[in-house]
Design goal:
By secondary structure, this protein is of the alpha+beta class. It folds into two domains: 2-108, Uridine Diphospho-n-acetylenolpyruvylglucosamine Reductase, domain 3 (2-Layer Sandwich), CATH 3.30.465; 115-334, Vanillyl-alcohol Oxidase, Chain A, domain 3 (3-Layer(aba) Sandwich). Helix content is 28%, strand content 21%. It has helices at 18-26, 42-47, 56-59, 86-95, 127-140, 201-205, 229-243, 297-317, 336-339, 345-358, 363-366, and strands spanning 2-3, 9-13, 65-71, 77-81, 101-108, 115-121, 147-155, 163-171, 197-199, 217-218, 221-226, 254-261, 282-287, 290-291. Strands 9-6-8-7-12-13-11 form a seven-stranded antiparallel sheet. Strands 1-2-5-3-4 form a five-stranded antiparallel sheet, with helices on one face. The protein has a two-stranded antiparallel sheet with strand order 10-14. A hairpin with a 5-residue loop joins strand 3 (65-71) and strand 4 (77-81). The two termini are 35 Å apart. Bound molecules: flavin-adenine dinucleotide. Residues 1-112 form the FAD-binding PCMH-type domain. Keywords: FAD, Flavoprotein, Oxidoreductase. It comes from Didymosphaeria variabile.
Length: 377
C-alpha cells in the first residue's frame, strides 16, 4: 500500500484486504469508499461490481478504482483506466474473473477521517417499524448522505426462536448527533444493544474476527425489490416462513440483510452492470445462511431454492418486483445464469466482445475455476 503525496489516491497490490487498507489510510486522515465489514479482497470487490459500503451513500458505489494493472492471458502487462484500454477497464468493474489477473490497483481515497459507527441491535418483535425505517431510508436517505445503515435480521434457532433485528449504523458528519438516522434511534426505534461511537474505519474494521469457524458451510443469495415496505415485508415473511424447517440442521443460523439503496448509491460512472438512476430507490437483500455439515448441503440448498421461488412469486403477485439488478459479489452460484443477462443485452454483448479481444483463447474462461463466465452467459 502506498499513498500518493496529495493523498488523493492509494496504490495497492492485489493481495490487499479491506481492514489493513482502512488502517493504513487512517494514518493519513483519509479513507476508501469500500465494503463495510469482513476481511475480503479489495480487487475481488471491484471485479464483483463494487464495492458497496457505508460511504457509497455519499460518494456512490463502484467508483473506487482509478486504474487496474493486469496480466493478460498472453502474458502482456497492461494498465486499464479511463485513458488506457478503457474498454477493459469498463469490463473489469462487475465483469468478474474473465479478463486478466489484476496485479495492482490505484484507488481513489475519500476525505473521511472518522465516523460514528455502531454495531447495534433493536431486539426482537420490531419488524414493522424496522421495515418501515428501511423503506424510509431508501426513499429519503439521500438527503443525509453522511448517514447509512445496513440491516441484518438474524435467526439463530439454537439460541432463540425469535428473529433479532440487528444492523450497522454510520454517520460521518461532525458532532455526536447522527443526522438522518432518526428512524433507527429512540424514540422511533430504540436501540437495545450497542451504541454509536466515534471511531475510524481502520479501528472498527480490525476490531472483530468476522470469519465463522473453519469448515462452516455458507452461501449468499441476492434479491432486489422496489423501496417499498410491503415488498420488504413479503420478502422477509416468505423467507423466514419458508426456511423454518431448517431449525434442526446442525449449526444452522441465517441472516436476511436489508440494504436501503438511495439514488446517490447508484450514481455510478457508466458501468458494465448498467447500474444507474433506474435502479434506485430500492431495497437490496442478501440471504446468508450458515450451517455445519456437508451432509446437510442438499437440504439447506433445496429449502432455500424453494424459498426464493416463493419470494419472487409473492413479490410479482403483489406487483412489487423483483427488480432486475444483480450484484455479482453477493450472488449464489445458482444465480450465475441470470447475473450477466441482468446487466442488459447490450452490456452483455459488449462484455463478450471485450472478452474475445483480450482473451481470444479463453484462458480465463476455461482454465480459471469458479466465478461467473461471460462467454457462457
Ligand atoms: C463477510 C463478508 C462481508 C462482505 N461485505 C461486503 C460489503 O459490505 N460490500 C460489498 O460490496 N461486498 C461485500 N462482500 C462481498 C465481497 O466484496 C466479495 O465476496 C468479493 O468478491 C470478495 O473478494 P475476494 O478477492 O476476497 O474474493 P475471491 O473469492 O478471492 O475473488 C472473487 C472473484 O474475483 C476473482 N479475483 C480475485 N482477485 C483477483 C485478481 N487479482 N485478478 C483476477 N481475478 C481476481 C476471483 O477469481 C473470484 O472470481 C462481503 C463478503 C463477505 C464474505
Amino acid at each position: 500500500m502506498a499513498i500518493s503525496n496529495d493523498r488523493q489516491t492509494v496504490t495497492i497490490g492485489a493481495g490487499v484486504t479491506w481492514p489493513p487498507l482502512y488502517a493504513y489510510l487512517d494514518g493519513f486522515n483519509v479513507s476508501a469508499n469500500g465494503i463495510r465489514s469482513g476481511n475480503g479482497g479489495v480487487v475481488g470487490a471491484i471485479l464483483g461490481g463494487g464495492p458497496f459500503g457505508f460511504m457509497s451513500y455519499e460518494f456512490g458505489m463502484s467508483n473506487i478504482a482509478r486504474s487496474l494493472d493486469c496480466v493478460l492471458a498472453d502474458g502482456t502487462l497492461v494498465t486499464a483506466s479511463t485513458d488506457e484500454h478503457p474498454d477493459l477497464f469498463w469490463a473489469l468493474v462487475g465483469g468478474g474473473n474473465n479478463y486478466c489477473v489484476v496485479t495492482k490497483a490505484v484507488l481513489n481515497t475519500v476525505p473521511v477521517s472518522s465516523a460514528l459507527i455502531g454495531t447495534v441491535s433493536w431486539g426482537s418483535g420490531v419488524s414493522e417499524q424496522y421495515i418501515k425505517s428501511v423503506e424510509q431510508f431508501a426513499l429519503h436517505g439521500a438527503e443525509y448522505p453522511k448517514a447509512s445503515f445496513e440491516g441484518q435480521t438474524r435467526w439463530v434457532p439454537s439460541r432463540s426462536s425469535e428473529i433479532s433485528f440487528d444492523g450497522y449504523l454510520w454517520y460521518s458528519g461532525e458532532g455526536n448527533e447522527p443526522l438522518g438516522l432518526e428512524n433507527f434511534t429512540a424514540p422511533v426505534l430504540p436501540i437495545t444493544r450497542g451504541n454509536l461511537t466515534r471511531t475510524t474505519m481502520g479501528a472498527w474494521s480490525n476490531a472483530f474476527n468476522y470469519a465463522p469457524p473453519l469448515g462452516t458451510r455458507a452461501i449468499f443469495h441476492w434479491l432486489t425489490s422496489p423501496a417499498n415496505a410491503t415488498a420488504a415485508r413479503i420478502a422477509f415473511d416468505t423467507y423466514y416462513e419458508s426456511i423454518a424447517s431448517l431449525a434442526d440442521v446442525e449449526g444452522f443460523s441465517t441472516t436476511f440483510s436489508m440494504l436501503p439503496v438511495t439514488p446517490i448509491v447508484t450514481r455510478a460512472p457508466e458501468n458494465a452492470m448498467g447500474l444507474g438512476s433506474d435502479d434506485s430507490p430500492a431495497i437490496w437483500y442478501v440471504e446468508s445462511p450458515l450451517w455445519s455439515r456437508p451432509e446437510d448441503d442438499a437440504r439447506v440448498l433445496e429449502v432455500h431454492a424453494e424459498a426464493n421461488i416463493k419470494i419472487r412469486e409473492n413479490l410479482s403477485a403483489a406487483g412489487l418486483g423483483p427488480l432486475p439488478f444483480m450484484y455479482l459479489s453477493d450472488i449464489q452460484k445458482s444465480q450465475i445464469p441470470e447475473t450477466f443477462p441482468s446487466y442488459g443485452a447490450e452490456n452483455l454483448r459488449k462484455l463478450k466482445t471485450i472478452r474475445d479481444k483480450y482473451d481470444p483463447d479463453r484462458v480465463f474462461t476455461e482454465l480459471v475455476p469458479g466465478g461467473a463466465k461471460v462467454a457462457l452467459s
